[in-house]
């Protein structure tokens, strides 16, 4: 063993000859050798101020590689480095490794936080779009053609849009086309008389009948729309629209779990049957 340690090897860095005991040798077939002095200088230069990025980019923080060109041998062991490096250089290498590990951990935490914020922002954006759809497309009475809202019900079950002249049914909001001359025989009147949701079969209705039909239609459309959402999104939508639902006499629920959504749907069915 002593003879083996005293065999001379040429350093691949400085090209001087040294005994094996004065350096480190990789386990490749060519057995590349680097002397202790070159190893010391390499470690000190690699761990100097401002070189952490290089140390990390080249993977040196995971171990010192063989200096042989394209050598695939494993990195030098910690034991070999501890034997050949001075205490000061070995401490510098350990400190640099710890700094890189800490920096990578911080970067991973920051990336996780950014991803969480992005998910939260995406969820909020989706929740806003869902609420806007429910409020503007389901809870707001509007022309089915141009979206012009209308509020007052004058007793006639046919409504003519003041913006685009579309005639539509007050019960189901069926678009009956543009009607330039209103008369009892136009398409909108013909539809209203045979609309499946017109319980009177007449072109006129009381305010109570109108309100009942409105609630039924909004419940139907809301139930169908909620069924297209995930349970969490549907529950969030009910929470966000709770005030509007209550103001319109519709069912409101708290935003807790899918069980509330199920309860909401059961209440819708019960209300459909009751009204």
UniProtKB/TrEMBL annotation:
GO terms for molecular function: ubiquitin binding; ubiquitin-protein transferase activity; zinc ion binding. Pathway: Protein modification; protein ubiquitination. GO terms for cellular component: ubiquitin ligase complex. Gene3D superfamilies: Zinc/RING finger domain, C3HC4 (zinc finger) (3.30.40.10). GO terms for biological process: proteasome-mediated ubiquitin-dependent protein catabolic process; protein linear polyubiquitination. The keyword Metal-binding applies. Keywords: Metal-binding, Ubl conjugation pathway, Zinc, Zinc-finger. Coiled coil: none annotated. PANTHER family: RING-TYPE DOMAIN-CONTAINING PROTEIN, UBIQUITIN CONJUGATING ENZYME 7 INTERACTING PROTEIN-RELATED. This is RING-type domain-containing protein. It comes from Prymnesium parvum.
